[in-house]
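Fold this complex.
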Amino acid sequence: MMKKRLFTPGPISVPEEVLLEMAKPIIHHRTPEFLEIAQKVVENLKYFFQTKNDVFIIAGSGTAAMEAAVVNVLSPGEKAIVISGGKFGERFVEIVKAYGCIPFVIEPGWGNDVDIAIVEQTLKQNPDIKAVYGTLVETSTATAYNIKGLGKLISDFPETIFVVDGISGLGAVECRTDDWNIDILVSGSQKALSLPPGLSFISVSEKAWRKIASSKLPKYYLDLKKYKKAMEKFDFPFTMAVSLVIGLNKSLEIIKQKGLENLWKIHRKRALATRKAAEAMGLKIFSKSPADAVTAIILPEGIDGEKFCSDLRKEFGMSVAGGQDRLKGKVIRISHFGWQDEFDTISVVAAIEIMLNKYNFRVELGNGVKEAMKVLFGN
Amino acid sequence: MMKKRLFTPGPISVPEEVLLEMAKPIIHHRTPEFLEIAQKVVENLKYFFQTKNDVFIIAGSGTAAMEAAVVNVLSPGEKAIVISGGKFGERFVEIVKAYGCIPFVIEPGWGNDVDIAIVEQTLKQNPDIKAVYGTLVETSTATAYNIKGLGKLISDFPETIFVVDGISGLGAVECRTDDWNIDILVSGSQKALSLPPGLSFISVSEKAWRKIASSKLPKYYLDLKKYKKAMEKFDFPFTMAVSLVIGLNKSLEIIKQKGLENLWKIHRKRALATRKAAEAMGLKIFSKSPADAVTAIILPEGIDGEKFCSDLRKEFGMSVAGGQDRLKGKVIRISHFGWQDEFDTISVVAAIEIMLNKYNFRVELGNGVKEAMKVLFGN
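Structure:
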């Protein structure tokens, strides 16, 4: 038996206060008691989303909300830009295709931010593009995108809505739904909210509702009009995951108390500390536009990243993520969000140093930790 | 809300496996189900004590078992040596006095091991000494005593038994009840066993039973003869703390799986790492015979140790202990036992470095951590 520490980019550890809340006896989802909690949760979700738009909770993981952001918006044969810089950008492409719509895929290349001029040009050349799908933080490459810039651009196109996958980023990095003109933002429970997986969230602007009104794709469980109708009474169209929502209530209270701006700062420090530590170990990070939610470190040539991750878990009880797809075996990804603190950052950096030495990549023990400590606690 | 990390020399964090075990519905203490657990627990406690002697569980904290080791052994007016090198040695003196017995107090001085020659001389000059009371690890000074040497000495005195307070040390440092001729060893749940406080344990040798047979001090709840009679059926004379015993069962299983010798080695590494880190910060440790269960670091002149501890708790959620009595405000004490690992040691060292800087005692961030990492993970 050993201590377990999660640094995977979701799920992440759940604070004991939230665990205890979720361990209370189950209540029924159509009781005034539960609907009162739901009302509070939705209000606090609006703070979390930085929006006055509608926000809905779906009992389903982030992909469910991504799918909702397609099937409620488009109609068969309609066109949408998808900015795809990694596995989760690709997921939007797959969903759009699965419903017989036409994706215009803009690929900035893995690890690169999007070139807004290309998006602008594509929009201008194709006035029938109904939506632009973007990603706040691409988990697979640990890359942040200029969502603010994209939102500003797209707001000039009255017939095009802006949809953002904020699953891995929301709460960890700055994101302002209303100020940045994000029409639909989706997120999930198992990232910066530090809840177990199982819930996803979706915000919908007035502009998006107009699009939804005319959408002709088939849908039932993910039909946002059903959610909107139920929400008039702070209710849900289908059985809601009661204990997760009760945990969410606690989690959002904690976040509100800390303040979103403070959270963004904390994540930035943890991310920066990890990057500086990697540098001190002689390693490079993968992304050219690194996100503060998660860091992808390129492993030295010859080290099998899958085995490296597995050894970290077996020897130290520490879970970090490996690479996906073309990065498989080449990087490790360390999340900075959720229920972790500065000493966890120090611990994971220490573990990587030790493991690198075990793999005969010589690193002076403590050099990375020292740099991390300076960022985290120096003046 | 912040993460909490306990480095107090008891209580210490409880592993989740044990917490979950204790969270199961309460069962009655006179059921075959519970007595079966009790039987397993007593067998494994004998391994933990390294003894074939009787071992009993008392629902009460360590002091209850210390008192049992006096009231079952002595008679009014009888003499006993008490080796008192700190607060817990003093406690034996107080208990012996409280029952009208006569303590011969041997004081090695706080932080020093006992001089066995003095004990030998006292025993030879006073053939009517019925017992010698010693301490395995004196928590207040973080000092280890030569229990093996004392046991060897006392075994030559057929009318004198050797009683050891092993509350803070057992499981953390080497201690072999039978091989070392310890007639009565007491311990508690909230130290190396990583349980909540509430249980204490006491082992009794044949030699001690002979003493117990003639003891005339008043007792009821702590009457070991009652415990012995009940134990014939693996039962208890009074209502037992059911959930704690169920947790103990799990905790002992974990310890048995790891192996005591391994545990001793692990504690030695954590203690050594902490001492080396303190040295790298320019600090000294208090004890001249430092224990591997807990380390007392002398704070720089001018730093208020009480405030320092309180700030560590408030700013980093880290609990270490301050000094007691004459060491109040002058030292901090960091435990190495129980549910903590190498990364916890690194974390507490990092926190002390950071806090020292906040107190304007300049330490280069990471220097202590580096030394600790070398001890913990270097070759």
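Residues 89 and 283 of chain B are 27 Å apart (CA to CA).
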